[in-house]
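Dear Dr. H.,

I hope your travels went smoothly. While you were away I took the liberty of generating a structure for the chain from your last submission, since the lab meeting agenda had it listed for discussion. I wanted you to have the full record in hand beforehand rather than looking at slides cold. The sequence, exactly as received, is reproduced here:
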Amino acid sequence: MRLTLAFLAALAAVSLSAQTPLIEQGRAALVRGDVDAAIDLLEKAVEQTPKSSEAHYYLGGAYGEKAQKSSMFGAARNASKAKDELETAVALNPKYIEARFALVQFYAFAPGIMGGSFDKAFDQAKAIKALDPLMGHRAYSSIYSMQKKPDLAKKEYLDAIQEQPTSAKAHSWYGQYLTNAEKNYPAAFAEFDAVIKMDPAYMAAWYHIGRTAAIANANLPRGEEALRKYLAHTPKENEPKLADAHYWLGAIYEKQGKKTEAKQNYQAALKLNPDLKQATEALKRVS
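The corresponding predicted structure, in token form, is as follows:
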């Protein structure tokens, strides 16, 4: 069940002006971790605008969030609702890449009894690649990762870079893969450095430098500087959230033995997202 990862990572590339107030309110509830409020608002949005692919997409994401936090029975029920809403979003707008990518994640990570299917995941990845080759590579890589085929997963990112060598996005995604899948932190730092050289304003790279520094327990001063730079920025919808940036900055301070600064950042993370469990656990360690 990795629908939430794709959903919150994107939170859709839809302009706010294109959304109804109910959709925007539902988005805001999701960002602050209030899933029940988000579902209530987004159900009303779907009722109000049943032909809105965005309303169905966000409601699908909210149900996915709810499934992650539910018991086995509740998870199955909410996962089914998430799938239905995402499929409806794609049916209403076949070019809705974010909704298709969320379906890739759902089909690839959900068990078969909940509607998971690698064949359906590949169908969505193929459709995405026809619309956006870079996102297509990312979609295929996520499926191969779930199938435990790391060589194929890695090849998708390398192919993306070969096809578009000056794409900051392609290098950033590969850097994240190196951090998360291979734990190859020096190579990951090199990819993020390449991103910054190409486009210093690509703010997600600064966030990932800090996150990788915290995970690797390496280059901590640089990680601190990068996260401070990111925290001075107002993230766009598809960029990492400030709550996560505060959490990783807190982790860096904790590793440096600076408990006061670590505590302040964990508290800041929880203020922005009270549902951030790792920040709650970290705060107990430094309090």
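Two observations you may find useful: The mean pLDDT is 91. The two ends are 33 Å apart (CA to CA).

With kind regards,
E. W.
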